[in-house]
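Quick entry between incubations.
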Amino acid sequence: MRSKRREPIPGNRESKVGGRFSDLSSPASRPSAFVQALPFLLPNLLGFLFFTFLPVLACFGLSLTDYRLAPIASLRDLREQMRFVGLGNFVRLLGFTHEGGRLMANDPEFWRYLGNTLFLMLGIPISIAGSLLLALLLNQRLRGITIFRTIYFLPTVSSAVAVCIVWKWILHQQPNEVGLLNSALMSVGVANPPDWLGSMLWAKPAFIIMVLWLGVGGYNCVLYLAGLQGIPQELYEAADLDGAGAWARLRHITWPLLSPTTFFVVTMSVIAGLQGSFLFTAAFLMTGGGPAGATTTLMLYIYNYALAWHQLGYAAAIAAVLFALVFSFTLINWRYGQRLVHYQ
Amino acid sequence: MTLENRKSKVESRSRACGSSSVLNAIAYVALTAVGLTMLVPFAWMISTSLKAPAYAVEFPPRWIPSEPATVEVAGQTCRVALVGEASSPRPLRVGILRYSPEGVHVRVLSPSSRAGEQLVVPEGQLQEVRVTRLHWENYAAAWRAQGVRVRDAFFGLVRQADGFLVFYTNSILVTICITLGTVFTSSLAAFAFSRLRFPGRDAIFLGYLTTLMVPAIVIMLPVYALLSNLRLTNTYAALIFPPMFSAYGTFLLRQFFMTIPRELEDAAIIDGASPFGVYRHIILPLSKPALATLTTFVFLHSWNDFLWPLMVVDRLALKTLPIGLAHFQDSYTTEYHLLMAASVIVMIPVLIVFLIGQRYFVRGIALSGMKG
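Done. Structure below.
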C-alpha cells in the first residue's frame, strides 16, 4: 500500500544530495518539519477537523443529550435546550419494557424502520449477481462494448431526484391514469396490476426494482470488470489445455480470483444499503415514507427527528446506532469474511 | 503434455471459433436487452416532456408524442377523422362538427372531390387521425413556471427571476466552488501526507481514514445544529464549505501520489526547489489522471447532492437544482409534461460531464476498489 521510503543517507544530511525534504527531519529539526508541512496541511486539516472529524465526536456527544433545536438568543438558552441525559436516548430507542406480561419495545417504530432498511437490502445480492453477470458479458472482446458500459452507468450518474420523479410516473397507478409499468403488465395479461407506491405490500418491492435498475450496471459492475481484466489470461489458456469447460473455468478460476472484488463489493454495498441515501431520496420524494411507514428507512427516521421534529439529541442517538451497525458489520466482515477471500 | 498434443488442442480451439460467434450473438442480445431496459425511463422522460399537456397521460401509453389532428372548419376547430365507406376505395378525411344521437356530423375535407359535403356517420365508422407534434415549449414553460418564481435572487440583486435560472446558477456556483476547493486543499494535504515527514503525520492520516466509514448523516447533524445556531443556514457558505472537506479526496490523491517515483523529485530538490515547487511542478503535472478522476467524482457528487442542501437551505433563492426540482415537483405534482421537462433540464449537464469525464470516472472506481 505504501511505497518504500528510503532511509536517509547517514552523515549526508546537511547536503541535499540524494535527499528529500523528509531527510531533513532529524529529531532536532522536527518542529521545523512540522512548520514546513503546515501550509500544505492546514487548509484541508482545519476544514476536516471542523466539518468532519469533530462533528463525529459531537454527534456522539449530542446523542447523550435531549437537545431540541430552537432559536437561541444567548448561550444560556442553549444550556436549557441541551440537558445531559446519559444513555436515556438509547434506552428509549433500543430498550424494552415489561408491560402486562408482554415485552414491549420502547420505540417500536425504530425496530420497524430498521426492519424496512434490512428488507430493502434484500435487493443487494440480486444486484451484485446481476453486476457480475453483466461484467462477464462486457468482458467479451466485442465491438461497441463502451457504448453498453456508458448506458449501464447512466442511472448511477443521473440526478437521483430526476430519477425518482420519472420512476414515480412509471409506477403510477390511479383509477384513470395508469403508469408505464402497469400498462405493460396489463398488455401481457395482468388484469389488476398493483398500486405500487400506494400499497403496503408492493411499495418495498417497487423500491427494490428501482434500486436494481439503478445499481446493476453501476459501481459494482465497473469494479467487477476491472477485477476480470486483472485475471491473467494464461490461467484460462492453461485451463483450456486441461479441457476445462466454460462453467469449470468460471467456477475454478474466475470466481476465486474475483473474490477480493466480491468482498469489496459486498462490503461497500451493505454499508451503502444501511445508509440508503438513494432510498432516502426515493422515500422523501415518492412516498413520503408511506404508505403507513412502509418505506421509511432509518435515514428518513433520523431526518424526520432532526429536521421535522427538531429533536436533535434523539436523532443523533439513532445516527449513532446506524454508525454502530455499519461499524460492527465492517468489523465482522473483516474478521470472518476475509477468510473466504482468495488472494492470488 | 507433449508438444503435438498441445498443438492439436490449440488448433481445436481455433476451430471452435464458429461456436464462439454464436456465443457473441447471445452476448449482444443480452447486452442490448439490458441496455434497453436501462434506457426506458430516460426515453419515457423525454417522450413525456414533449407531449401536449392534455395528452401527457394516456392509456395505453404512446411513445411518440402525438395528438388528435385538428382543422379549421367555418371558424370552428374540429378534430380530423377518417371515414371508411363501401362506395369509395380510399377513406374520406373529415372534420368532426358535432356529436348527436343519430350519429356524428362531419364535413368532408378538401383533397376529396366531395369536399364540403356534410354527412352523418355512426361513431364506430370514424377513425381518429393523430399527428406527431413535439412540444418543445414545455421546456420553456417548466423553466418559467410560476411555482418556482424566485424573489430576491442572486444575493438579493434581482427582484424576480425564473426558478430554473436561479437553481442552475446556484448549482454551478456551489459545484464549482466545492470541486475546486476539494481538489486544491486535498491535493495539498495529500502532498504533505505522501511526501513530507512531520511528527504526528501517520496519526493524523489515521484520523482521516477512520472517518471514511462514518455514515454521512452522523457528520451532518452536528454541523447542521451549529450552522443553525449561528444563523448560517440559508447561505451559500453553508452549501459550499461543509461538503468540501471529506477525507475521501485526500485519501484518493495520497494513494496516487505514493505511486509517483521519488527519483523524479530529486533533480528538482538538488536544484533547490522548495516543497511547493515540487508540488507545483512535479507532483501536480504527473497526477493529471488522478486529479481528473477526483474532479469528475466531486463534480457529479455535489451536482446531484440532495440531503445536505435539503437540510441547510429552504429559501427558494438559494436552492440548487436537485432541491429546486423537488420543490417544483411539489408544485406540479400531476403535470407530467412539465415534471419530465424539468427533469431533463436538470439531467443534461451531468450527462455531458459524465460523457467527457467517463474514462477518469471509471478508472477512479477501479482505483478505489483496488486500494480498498
